[in-house]
Amino acid sequence: MKKAVLLLFLLTLTFFIGCHRHRSNDNLVEVDLPQIQDSGRIVALTLYGSASYFLYRGEPMGFEYELMQQFAKSLGLQLEVKVAKSQSELVRMLQQGEGDIIAFNLGITKELKDSVLFCGDELITHQVLVQRNGTGNHKPLQDVTQLVGKKIHVKPGRYLDRLNNLNKELGGGIDIQVVENDSLSSEDLIALVAKGEIDYTVCDNTFAKLNKTYFYNLNINLAISFDQRSSWAVRTTSPLLAEAATRWHEENSKSADYKRSHKRYFEISKQIQLDPILSIENGAISHFDQLFKKYAKEINWDWRLLASLAYTESNFDTTAVSWAGARGLMQLMPLTAKAMGVPEGKEQNPEESIKAAVKYLGLTTETFKNIPSDNERTKFVLAAYNAGTGHILDAMALAEKYGKDKNTWDDNVETFVLLKSKEEYYNDPVCKFGYIRGTDTYQFVKDILNRLEIYKEKIKK
Fold first, then answer.
1. H helix runs in 213-266, sequence order
2. Which of 150, 346, 347, 397 can pair with 327 through a Cys bridge, CB separation 3.0 to 4.6 Å?
3. Which of 188, 278, 210, 237 has the alpha carbon at shortest distance from 64?
4. Same fold, 127-226 and 289-458
5. What's the pLDDT tens digit per position in 177-195?
6. Of 126, 118, 70, nearest to 91 (Cα)?
7. Helical packing angle, 186-195 and 205-212, nearest 10°
8. Which fold does the domain 289-458 belong to in CATH?
9. If DSSP codes are grouped into helix, strand and coil, which group holds residue 124?
10. Would you call 217 exposed, middle or buried from its count of C-beta atoms within 10 A (0-12, 13-18, 19+)?
């Protein structure tokens, strides 16, 4: 009997040790590079954001995401991405073994140095004043002392905190306008500066640099804070992984893949240069009108609407390639083009592009079949074509949650498309697809429908 009890105890102890063999005394998961390589995959933890990770037209994108893809490939591993809702949650998920590496620029602080191993490329960031480039006698501010007497619009949070501290350092005089409007994000404030509706706002230099690709007239040269260091991170029990990430970053920073990714997010203009004056001669919109007429019938669309969509996407340029990799007349993303049957190498063929786009539009229309109004449904389909269906479904869920009509676009679902660039909304439990630059989608729908009215006035159906 005693032997049986002893055997049972030893088996139980062995099982207990086996279940916890990957945990150290401080309760950290003990998984390093060899174990990760044995598993064949690496799990990256990140946050949604315009520079880190987001879904665009159904495809994952983001500068940090692309770097993580390159790192995983260098190790011969498959990449899996998990998204946290905050930086503190990133650290918690890492320590509890839900991921192997934080692929997000985490602020290097004394407190965190005790919790994680920082690794990879050390990014130096600071806050900058966002203003317009000077014209005539109006020159951009070049020194923080020139902020005295200037009106600066800023959202509550760390940017406001920095401005308040700077105002004290200067002895007061900065006209700080706190923007409490829930529907306005930092991206929106940058857009307002570019349009001349406000003169100044504040954001991180990396975020400012990315947004400058949307607005050529921005000046982001004036730093208003001290430097903050940030980098990727791993558990303290993963020194070999940390070493590999740091070494890879050092070697990869001059590679063609790295340069291509950096250019995609921080250099290439995100705006299509559209002709300022539409050329509508002899009842024709473009060289592709017969193709628009042929394929629009398949989804019961006005061919002029399909033409307006093509103009907005590519300015009728069959060779167009967007910053995101969308190609051809209808700017289909590579995976979408393939799924819709475009033969390899034919992505810039106008008929193949239109045919595939119409097929995709038909499938998207089916997704929104429960919207009673045909006109309303068209707006949803256009929005989904621009952003991806998932983001529009998220916006519909938010609209319903906040008492709006989920089947109406204007002043209802479009409002939440705009709000999905804000953390508190894209992290809402009803959302499944995270961050999106909603202003682009909002304007996309308006531009296409406004141009359609012009076409209707000028050209018979």
1. 239-252, 256-266
2. 347
3. 210
4. no
5. 999 877 788 899 999 999 9
6. 118
7. 50
8. Lysozyme (1.10.530)
9. strand
10. middle
Burial class (CB in 10 A: 0-12, 13-18, 19+), 146: middle
Is the pLDDT reported for residue 104 higher than 90?
A: yes
Return the active site residues: 313
| Residue 83 neighbours by CB under 8 Å, 6+ apart | 45, 46, 47, 48, 53, 434
Architecture of the domain defined by 127-226: 3-Layer(aba) Sandwich (3.40)
Name 26's Cβ contacts closer than 8 Å, sequence gap at least 6. Answer: none
φ/ψ region of 196 (left if φ > 0, alpha if ψ in -120 to 50, else beta) reads: left
CA-to-CA distance for 242 and 119, rounded, in angstroms? 5
Q: What is the pLDDT of residues 311-369, one digit of tens each?
A: 999 999 999 999 999 999 999 999 999 999 999 999 999 999 999 999 999 999 999 99
Rounded Cα distance, 293 and 315, in Å: 18
Interhelix angle 374-387/438-458, nearest 10 degrees: 130
Q: For Cα atoms 119, 128, 259, give the angle at the middle one, nearest 5 degrees.
A: 50
Please answer whether residues 290 and 320 qualify as being in contact, where contact means their C-beta atoms are separated by less than 8 angstroms: no
CATH architecture of 31-123+229-266: 3-Layer(aba) Sandwich (3.40)
* Residue 417 DSSP SS3: helix
Q: Which DSSP category does 133 fall into?
A: P
Radius of gyration of the chain (CA): 26
Let me know: does 42 contact 32? Beta carbons within 8 Å: no
> How many residues in the chain?
461
Q: How far is CA 397 from the centre of its chain?
A: 20
The token duo for 153 is 């619009």
Longest dimension (CA), the chain: 102
Q: Is the pLDDT of residue 83 over 90?
A: yes
What is the C-alpha to C-alpha distance for residues 455 and 43, in angstroms, rounded to an integer?
A: 50
Query: How far apart are alpha carbons 35 and 12 in whole angstroms?
Result: 25
Residue 418's alpha-carbon distances to 29, 396, 426, 443, in angstroms, are 40, 12, 10, 10
Domain boundaries in the chain? Answer: 31-123+229-266, 127-226, 289-458
Strands 54-56 and 59-61: antiparallel
